[in-house]
Write a structure and sequence with these properties.
single chain; 378 residues; alpha+beta; Alpha-Beta Plaits; two-stranded antiparallel ribbon; 14 helices; 7 strands
Length: 378
């Protein structure tokens, strides 16, 4: 029982956490896909009033349907235009999710003006609640799925309450076209909305776990080279749009193979985690430590290269005061490192160029005796 509660808490925490750079990048692609699907579905919605007219629907319903179809197509093109600028508008998924739910509620409300029961018993329009929730999975953001689900529950519950409250008599909740409106049926629909939200949340959670497993190092839990290659373009775009500084530091543990052979692989793994913990202590919000090889790490720091050098050199000097203590009883090991720094965009406009500049300076640090950080070419 305790384990089940912990697993549920972990799932909720994961869904409520802000997605990392890779998930945000994937979510931006999902938002564009959703915008294209919305534009396509909007074109199909134009056909529905025509079909209704041919089937003998009321003139008022056909006019409402046609007017809404034109509005929906206009808005779909606006959302599509915004989505074509990925990652530019962080609020866009929430705005479009709220739009999809609110539009469904609006259509049901307009239908209720002609026949109150149509607002509670319509199947076709009500299903758009479920569709709006389902497509949030393409954005890879658990917070968005929970937000859209809660909004759908709140709006539909409010709509049902208003319809039943305004009904002057029981007979007004009976319709030749839509049957009888019953409270039990509306509760079942709310439960179905909730079930769709939970199912979609589980799908989002699973997708996040798969992406995390492919982008994280198994030993340290740090992002890996794949994460670096996929996440850096978003960082570059953020710097270009919002300003700020970005420094990439390439760190290599000095003679770590010899240390690993001396203390054994188990303590060697612990020594790596010891080093990771020391680096994480100096990182600020949104800064990242990435493991790209056995003993090679990349640090992404949101500060000028001079400030980055001061922080890393201070860390380098402090490592002597915090030696690693092997469990095997061997002598304490002082872990030292060499580093090379590169600033964006001065030293490179992409990941490859920055890594090349940082590696060149890392080699200078090794050539000059190791246990030092170099921020510029010799």
């Amino acid at each position: 029982m305790r384990e089940s509660i912990d697993n549920l808490k972990g799932l909720v925490d994961r869904l409520l956490a802000r997605p990392d750079e890779i998930m945000l990048s994937l979510g931006a692609g999902g938002e564009l896909l959703v915008a294209r699907l919305r534009a396509l579905l909007s074109l199909l919605i134009l056909v529905m009033p025509i079909v209704g007219a041919l089937a003998g629907s009321k003139t008022s319903e056909v006019v409402i349907g046609l007017s809404l179809a034109v509005f929906i197509n206009l808005m779909a093109q606006i959302w599509l235009g915004l989505a074509r600028r990925p990652l530019r508008y962080g609020w866009l998924p929430y705005a479009t999710g709220a739009y999809d739910i609110t539009l469904t509620t609006l259509v049901l409300s307009l239908l209720a003006l002609g026949d109150p029961v149509s607002a509670t018993n319509s199947i076709v329009v009500w299903c758009f609640y479920l569709l709006a929730i389902a497509i949030t999975a393409l954005r890879n953001d658990g917070r968005l799925t929970l937000f859209v689900t809660a909004l759908a529950l709140a709006q539909y519950a409010a709509l049902v309450a208003v319809v039943f409250w305004l009904a002057p008599a029981r007979e007004s909740l009976v319709s030749i076209d839509y049957g009888t409106a019953a409270i039990s049926t509306q509760i079942e629909r709310l439960i179905l909305i909730l079930m769709m939200g939970l199912l979609t949340s589980a799908i989002v959670y699973r997708m996040q776990r798969l992406v995390e497993m492919s982008g994280n190092d198994g030993l340290t839990g740090l992002p890996n080279r794949a994460w670096l290659l996929q996440g850096m373009p978003r960082m570059f775009e953020t710097i270009r749009n919002d300003g700020g500084s970005l420094t990439l530091a390439l760190l290599d543990l000095d003679r770590f193979k010899r240390i690993n052979d001396e203390i054994g692989p188990r303590d060697g793994d612990r020594a790596l985690r010891h080093f990771v913990a020391a680096v994480n202590e100096i990182l600020q919000e949104k800064e990242r430590l990435v493991r790209i090889g056995g003993q090679e790490f990349v640090v992404l720091m949101h500060c000028p290269i001079g400030s980055a050098w001061e922080r890393l050199d201070r860390l380098r000097r402090s490592m002597g005061d915090r030696p690693f203590l092997p469990e095997s009883g061997r002598d304490p090991q002082v872990i030292t490192f060499s580093g090379g720094l590169a600033a964006y965009p001065q030293d490179g406009g992409d990941v490859s160029a920055l890594l090349g500049s940082a590696d060149r300076r890392l080699q200078l640090a090794k050539h000059d005796g190791r246990n030092r950080v170099v921020a510029r070419d010799g």
